[in-house]
Amino acid sequence: MASSHVSSTVVPVLDPDLGRSVFDRLHEIGFDGRGMTRPSYSEGENLAHGVFETVAREHGLEVRRDWAANLFVTLPGRNRDLPVVMTGSHADTVPCGGNFDGAAGAVAGLLVLCAWVRAGYQPERDATLIVTRAEESVWFPLSYLGSRTAFGLLDATALATPRSDDGISLRDHMLACGAQPDLCDRATVLQPARIDCFVELHIEQGPVLIEADVPVGIVTGICGSTRYRSVVIHGQYAHSGATPRRFRSDTVMAGASMMMALEAAWKQVEAEGEEMTLTFGVCQTDPAQANFAAVPGRLELVIDIRSRDEGLLERMNALVIEQARRAEAEYNVTVDLGPRTRSTPAVMDAGLQAEAKKIASTLDIPAILMPSGAGHDAATFAGQGIPTEMLFVRNANGSHNPDESMEFPDFLCGVQVLEHLLRHRASQD
């Protein structure tokens, strides 16, 4: 039941100027001349974490880091033995991304805790903001790296994984950022039973809220994925005019055939009422050898399939392999799919969804229920059996690009819902 310590006179007030200031400081750290680039386990990510730590200490909040350098900011509760209420997100970006992906959720959690401090509100249980490391798997092919390390879910062999931009291992990047990779598999980590709930605010990364003309989305589930990040099709370079089709080993035609077959399967899946996405984010010949007058002998591509249905992901994965073998036979090429990476779909907590919807209605904030097509750290928490919810904030121009365009009033709408939801949970004794 609700604690008697919670009074209607306790009305925490969010500080918009503090929020704008933190976003401005993050922009200064990450701006690359076009967009934001704060690589996972980099000096830029370190500096971003430092911004959150500085503000937290200025407000008298507890600060600590775990072995992987994830940042934890805590407002102690009256009973510190109770499971903690958690929120948070990440501060790294994709190359030339925007300033709100990830950062908005971390800033939101910081604003909530700072507002509670200023209002003199002490929750019944601890409330903690986590600013995770390395959520963007473009830098290391490991989904949810920071939140997985926080729960001790990272195998020590993954520490040898090189970062995509410089080839330096995860272990060495961790060391350079003050982490202690030698404690992997041995350090104290988060225990699911000690966490009451996790709520992550994030910008929406698609156009649904824009189309619906509402500022806030209440997320029902998070897609999982199956990915091939380094597909290489090997064929034979040959003269474009002197080589009849029956003698060719054309990698571009083989790749195109695979892609069209997979797209046809995607259309069929949608026609049958199922949900998924399929993306070939890279498709390129060798610029040093491919030319106008040659049959292409090498093609590189990536395959990214996402769905909330794990069975569908497995069916599509089987189809990827089937189409690779067919293309080999039909086009006289070799298809090296490379390693497969994947993440598991996550279902959001029905009770938290209902509470968030009720809060939004009470605050007269328009909100809709919707799935998340992108992956988030919240999936890791849900996968540990922790009641988990996500809140989306309307954002024009998508995400993972410099043109992210979250309006600050929309952000404050999302933070208000977050604050009320966390305070409701944190007030339970």
Low-pLDDT parts are 1-8
CATH topology of the largest domain: Aminopeptidase
The averaged pLDDT comes out at 95
The total of helices stands at 11
Oligomeric form: single chain
Shape: elongated
Please identify, by name, the CATH architecture of the largest domain: 3-Layer(aba) Sandwich
Any idea what the radius of gyration is? 23 Å
What letter string, H or E per element, gives the SSE order? HHEEEHEHHEHEEEHEEEEHEEEHEHEH
Summary, kept brief:
This protein has 429 residues and is α+β, with helices and mostly antiparallel strands. It has helices at 16-30, 43-58, 103-119, 145-150, 170-176, 208-212, 251-271, 310-331, 350-362, 378-383, 408-426; strands spanning 62-65, 71-75, 84-90, 127-132, 195-203, 216-222, 224-234, 238-239, 277-279, 283-285, 294-295, 298-307, 334-336, 340-343, 346-347, 367-372, 388-393. The chain has two domains: 16-223 and 346-426, 3-Layer(aba) Sandwich (Aminopeptidase), CATH 3.40.630; 225-343, Alpha-Beta Plaits.
